[in-house]
């Protein structure tokens, strides 16, 4: 075993881990980031791509956002398409803020480049990362490096940013932990389509056949989803059947139709809501998907991970630089407040736009009334817009940017 020491050990080189290590580096706090994936695997996992304005401002302020303005697209509105009629929600008009369409793997590519330029100690391609010890003053993580050498890494604080299958989460003893879990009774059938965009803004469609979402990845690759059964099998669906189903869910008297093209990939995405409480045990802190999952409607996952680590970086700076522990003591409660608010936003948007299979007619009529309210009340639209663009980040160093 090679014995090593750092101030903060970060397990997981996804958005939470890489943004945390970046914020810590800006405060002069050394961190070691470990991940079992290689750089190619991290950059190659294609995920949702909506960045809240606060996320963009933070990346900008740190010098990791330059490409968003070039390759990303600012979206000032979204379309809610209900039974074949599109109602635009003017995000910028309601809130003065926007979102950016910029895929997660591009964010990760930019963050990895930032860390390369700033000489962060990244250990990618490691195996068997385990929390060996947790104490009042620190923790110990063990893993085997990509070079095959076993390492025992002692740290003053350990950040579990290792995703929904988190290993670090296990360091919070069962008797102290509550796992809040809710499986939703539907899933998304997702496809990447080799085609130009069908609409200038994202379209969230609610029809009698169920929900559909028309999103985009690049000028030539589109991302689309339609609500399906969680047990749906992708092999039962030909390209033609997929395209017919998507077309049927957006069809309307205005003649709107999707631009078709070959289906490049297909997958079924389950929908669940999950929160682990508390997000801290001693000097172990959870952030991002390690602590929570939201259903994908509204694309909050990455943005919520960034909000967690903004708080965590501030708390760890107070602890490790100023030797004050109030902020780390408050971290779990402070983070949980935004987590639950975001859970509510994602859960509500999801259950409003998706008819529930086998729902009681009373509940289904209520749901439709909620959809109608959303597209006829300016106040309801404003509330949706506020949550969609994201609530302000806690005191992030992001003032003065002018997106
Ligand atoms: C996506 O592009 O994958 C996406 C966009 C918006 C959502 C969810 C997913 O609400």
The dominant shape is: globular
Classify the secondary structure makeup into a structural class.
alpha+beta
The CATH class name of the domain at 2-75 and 98-181 and 272-355 reads Alpha Beta
| Subunit organisation of the chains | single chain
Relative helix content:
25-40%
At CATH's second level, what is the architecture of the domain at 2-75 and 98-181 and 272-355?
A: 3-Layer(bba) Sandwich
Low-confidence stretches: 397-402
* Major beta sheet summary: 8 strands, mixed
Superfamily at the CATH H level of the domain at 2-75 and 98-181 and 272-355? Answer: FAD/NAD(P)-binding domain
- Number of extended strands: 19
Residue-averaged pLDDT, rounded? 96
What share of residues are in beta strands? 25-35%
Terminus-to-terminus distance: 49 Å
Summed up, the helix count is: 11
Bound molecules: P-hydroxybenzoic acid
Radius of gyration (CA) equals 22 Å
SSE topology string: EHEHEHHEEEHEHEEEEEEEEHEEEEHHHH
Short key terms for the protein model shown above:
403 residues; alpha+beta; single chain; eight-stranded mixed beta sheet; globular; 35% helix; binds P-hydroxybenzoic acid; FAD/NAD(P)-binding domain; 31% strand; disordered C terminus
Question: What's the arrangement of secondary structure elements?
Answer:
Layout: E1 2-11, H1 15-26, E2 31-35, H2 39-44, E3 50-52, H3 53-62, H4 66-71, E4 73-75, E5 77-82, E6 85-90, H5 91-95, E7 99-101, H6 104-117, E8 121-124, E9 127-134, E10 139-144, E11 150-160, E12 178-194, E13 203-207, E14 210-218, E15 221-228, H7 239-250, E16 263-277, E17 280-281, E18 284-286, E19 292-293, H8 301-320, H9 326-353, H10 361-376, H11 378-389
Parallel strand pairs: 1-2, 1-11, 2-8, 5-13, 11-18
Antiparallel strand pairs: 3-7, 4-7, 5-6, 9-10, 10-11, 12-15, 12-16, 13-14, 14-15, 16-19, 17-18
Helix pairs in contact: 1-6, 1-8, 8-9, 10-11
The structure holds P-hydroxybenzoic acid (PHB).
Residues 48-50, 202, 213, 215, 223, 296-299 line the site of P-hydroxybenzoic acid (PHB).
